[in-house]
């Protein structure tokens, strides 16, 4: 059970969500040009030829829900602050950094977990029900595609809503249950932050850390981590092979909201090239895959994807 202080803090965090979402397009989405009617027509034509569409999505589809990303020009975490995500080896080997990570994540989770899908997430879920999507791989760990109803989905970098023990592999606890465990271990500790980072944590000072006690696995007392791929860690090879297998059965690729700077997602564009699959990219600004694209539209995903008329696409 949470203490009264913790309940008050949780309510304040949730109350700030509406404000964060309402200003998201200004704060976290880079400047962009609205798509032309020609852009919409070209993307509809591209999709009309696809019967087994493979989708790759990145942080650019979630910025419109109020979640910042790392790399967007001028508005991403790297551009706005000197803060950097924690490397996996730091998390594993440095007890002070492990403690700091969980203090920040504990404070950030009420806000992060309350974010909701936007039009783009719901559009992809609708495309599934209309039989357009063969498979979808996302770099995002925010669960928004799942919340929107997507099921033909691989979460390439994991999901923040799940947790796992680094030492014994225990996965019998949800992220919310872990939140409650941390609250019990820290009945009077709390902190505040006006920031929210892409992976659910916030910025805290050493002074704010105080006497915070980090969580331990209830089964082996080992180290707990969100079930996500940290920077400096590797994506599960079996998952990569499965996704490649899905890609080989697809007939076209749509990249949405990703710069493809991370090799873990860019590798699928390289495979698509080898398979000679047509590739379309919708993203603000350049991406690593632009030269491979048969169609590139530089705009906000939410300004074009919900306007594609899947039901009216001509039969092949």
TrEMBL record:
Q: Which organism is it from?
A: Adineta ricciae
| Record key words, sorted | Metal-binding, NAD, Transferase, Zinc
SUPFAM superfamilies per the record?
DHS-like NAD/FAD-binding domain
GO MF annotations in UniProt: histone deacetylase activity, NAD-dependent; metal ion binding; NAD+ binding
Read off the Gene3D superfamilies from this record: SIR2/SIRT2 'Small Domain, TPP-binding domain
This one is known as: Deacetylase sirtuin-type domain-containing protein
What residue stretches are annotated with the Deacetylase sirtuin-type domain? 33-316
Supply the InterPro entries for this chain. DHS-like_NAD/FAD-binding_dom (IPR029035), NAD-dep_sirtuin_deacylases (IPR050134), Sirtuin (IPR003000), Sirtuin_cat_small_dom_sf (IPR026591), Ssirtuin_cat_dom (IPR026590)
From which domain of life does this come?
Eukaryota
Residues annotated as binding Zn(2+) = 165, 168, 217, 220
GO cellular component term, pick one: mitochondrial matrix
Active-site residues (renumbered): 157
**Coiled coil region boundaries:** none
Under PROSITE patterns, the record lists: SIRTUIN
């Amino acid at each position: 059970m949470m203490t009264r202080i913790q309940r008050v803090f949780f309510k304040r965090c949730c109350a700030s969500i509406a404000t964060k979402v309402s200003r998201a397009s200004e704060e976290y989405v880079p400047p962009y040009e609205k798509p032309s009617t020609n852009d919409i027509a070209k993307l509809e034509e591209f999709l009309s030829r696809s019967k087994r569409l493979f989708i790759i999505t990145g942080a650019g589809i979630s910025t419109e829900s109020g979640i910042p990303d790392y790399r967007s020009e001028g508005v991403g975490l790297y551009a706005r602050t000197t803060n950097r995500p924690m490397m996996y080896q730091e998390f594993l080997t440095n007890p002070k950094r492990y403690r700091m990570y969980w203090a920040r994540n504990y404070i950030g989770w009420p806000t992060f977990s309350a974010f909701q899908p936007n039009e783009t997430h719901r559009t992809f879920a609708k495309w599934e029900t209309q039989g357009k999507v063969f498979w979808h791989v996302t770099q995002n760990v925010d669960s928004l595609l799942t919340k929107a109803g997507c099921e033909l989905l691989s979460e390439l970098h994991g999901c923040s809503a799940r947790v796992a023990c680094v030492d014994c592999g225990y996965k019998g606890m949800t992220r919310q249950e872990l939140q409650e465990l941390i609250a019990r271990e820290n009945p009077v500790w709390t902190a505040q932050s006006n920031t929210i980072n892409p992976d659910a944590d916030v910025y805290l000072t050493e002074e704010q850390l105080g006497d915070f006690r980090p969580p331990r696995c209830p089964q082996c007392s080992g180290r707990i981590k969100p079930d996500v791929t940290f920077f400096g860690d590797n994506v599960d090879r079996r998952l990569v092979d499965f996704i490649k297998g899905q890609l080989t059965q697809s007939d076209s690729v749509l990249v949405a909201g990703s710069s493809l700077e991370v090799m873990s997602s860019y590798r699928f564009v390289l495979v698509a090239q080898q398979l000679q699959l047509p590739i379309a990219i919708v993203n603000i600004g350049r991406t690593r895959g632009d030269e491979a694209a048969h169609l590139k539209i530089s705009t906000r995903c939410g300004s074009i994807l919900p306007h594609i008329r899947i039901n009216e696409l001509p039969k092949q």
